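Run folding on both entries below.
>entry_1
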Amino acid sequence: MHAFDILGDPVRRRILELLADGEQAAGSVSEVIRAEFGISPPAVSQHLRVLRESGFVSVRPDGTRRLYSVEAAPLREIDVWLERFRQFWDQRLDALATELARGRHQRREQRGNP
């Protein structure tokens, strides 16, 4: 499955967002996802399995718990793919920064503080 197929699902994106804050137990992830999306525990487990099998997350046992964490490699692959498109938003962000700086400069001049 392609990385964007994995990330195209809002439940899987949300799981990755939760795990971006650090390692979490499957039960904790499941609670949040069930509350936000109204899906069953087996459905949450299926999403975790897809993320694990695609390499986006890893799992390690801790007694009876399963702790999940984000794996960086697939995200780096997406970042590499996105690199060719950064020019489209970087130029706009640079222009925005220029306009913000110009506005700050004009406000200082209006207050008499060059």
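>entry_2
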Amino acid sequence: MAGMFRRSSPLPPFPPGAVLVGGAARDWLRGVAAKDFDWMVPDPAGAAHLLAGALGGSAFELDAERGYWRVSAPGGVQHDLVPRPADVEEDLRRRDFTVNALGVLPGGRVLDVVGGQADLRARRLRMVSRENLHADPLRAWRAARFELTLGFRLEAGTEAAVREVASDLAAGRLPLPAWERVRDEVHALLRSMDAARGVGRLEELGLLALTVPELREGQGVTQGGFHHLDVFAHGVEALHQLIGRFPDAPVTLRWAALLHDVGKPRTLVRDELTGRASFYGHDKVGAAITAQVLTRLKLPGEDVRHASALVGAHMVPLPATEREARRFVHRRRALLPDLLAVMLADREAARGPMSSDASRRAYARGIERVLTALEEQPSPPPPLLRGEEIMALLGVPPGPRVGEATRALAEAAALGEVGTPGEARAFLLAWAAAN
């Protein structure tokens, strides 16, 4: 079995008594360079310092109680070292999938106790055992992620077991994994170029209902007009369109594209005579739902706010003139250019009867106007008057009125209507008289 695979990637130096396990062993057999190495060694501390010295990295203790160490090496490569168990083969039999239950010994000899090499060759994802999946239900999400990112296919019995885990989780017969762990698996899936198919796979396996049930509310909610898909499928297609155009889009932006219409089912109103659907306010409702979803998944607060704001703003009209484009940039600068990416993905995912080449070209021109205005003014112009000067000029005390005047003046400066302190004073006096 040793010559079965192309092993183009060199192995790192083996610490004394080490066994390389997990994803790095799997990827070496596939001829794929690994970034994360998992080692079982008799002396993790000593091995970590040896590796750090050999690789030009740094070693530090991860968990003193369990004896876990980590080495950070150049190029973003990471080595985790844990104590070698008395029975390595038994440890491998407790793992999730056969392709991850492989060990590599010094010299490249492979330790394969559950047929992982045959499954690698067949590009098949097979569980080590049903009991192992139930022992850690997160492995159900991992199955979907590995199927997508490795390009393997779930073996029929394993797929049935994953569905069973999802059913047991939904019924409360198994405890839900920590949300941070679920988030990490979903994010690994969302970062894939084929993330849209991955979302569909989560749905097929019964895992989407456990992860983002709000998204599923759009199933069967038809829209008409510009749309040819129901709300759920449209969100998935928008994610696909986003990644196709912006393959380096960060995960926060991918969430915004996927969830941009998540508020539609809760705002749906159908005309009794025509049956036409309307979703007034779905952007604002969707922003609130997005915040709930991403907070539940333990994303950082800044990411939650950004994705929620993108969803809340995705319905703003694009500018028809250069002046409107400058106002658009001024009012939504913090969301750009991400907002344009979400809006473009939304439009490109809609191919209903009202959609046409002409409407898409007009939409593209609006986006181009915004990008041009953003390029011309990449940062807001410096303030022309201080708050104290505005209060003295208008004869008002500190309060909301000063804030309103400051914002009005900042927008006028962004639009090019004022450019000097004198023009700013004249503008504010006229503004105060009219407001």
